[in-house]
């Protein structure tokens, strides 16, 4: 099965019938009372109308489940496996080899709750971009460490879940408006978050028992609207 690039996968979703998935999306967090008033007057700017379709596409992909009958879905899985492991051969759809990549069980599809296929295509972006592949492999190597091991793909899906939440809270709107892009900003924030996790995990000798703290406690500071641009620029300077 041939590898698939991130752009080819994205083009597939841009033309696929996602009508059922689109019915499930909630583009922004619903606010009421004083929270709604404060957000209106003091919150981030609204996402430009011409970018809302791209935002909704990302959220629709996040509502799509893994389908064994969709060739593109299977190619995404196989590409992730090959790029992380260095294998030149396809692997079975089910099996313990997925646990070695950091999924919780023998079926990766069961770990995508809350992110759907967007959780997979962010990993795909990570491993198929020549600038980020070395980082992805370094993180994957650390995830296999005897003492500091952690489930790489589950951690990745958790990061994607955070990215989606930040998007829905509109804290990325200013950066998306500035760059006239949405999905690229989401991917950059995903990489920035994984890079920060990797740095903390490696330098502070974190273990799996620290994962909740690292995800929930170490990252909120980079999600303020004033910090996002600086963090994204700094991330690419590091790569």
From TrEMBL:
It comes from the Eukaryota. Residues 72-226 form the ELMO domain. This is ELMO domain containing 3. Pfam families: ELMO_CED12. PANTHER family: ELMO DOMAIN-CONTAINING PROTEIN 3, ENGULFMENT AND CELL MOTILITY. It comes from Pelusios castaneus. InterPro entries: ELMO_dom (IPR006816), ELMO_domain-containing (IPR050868).
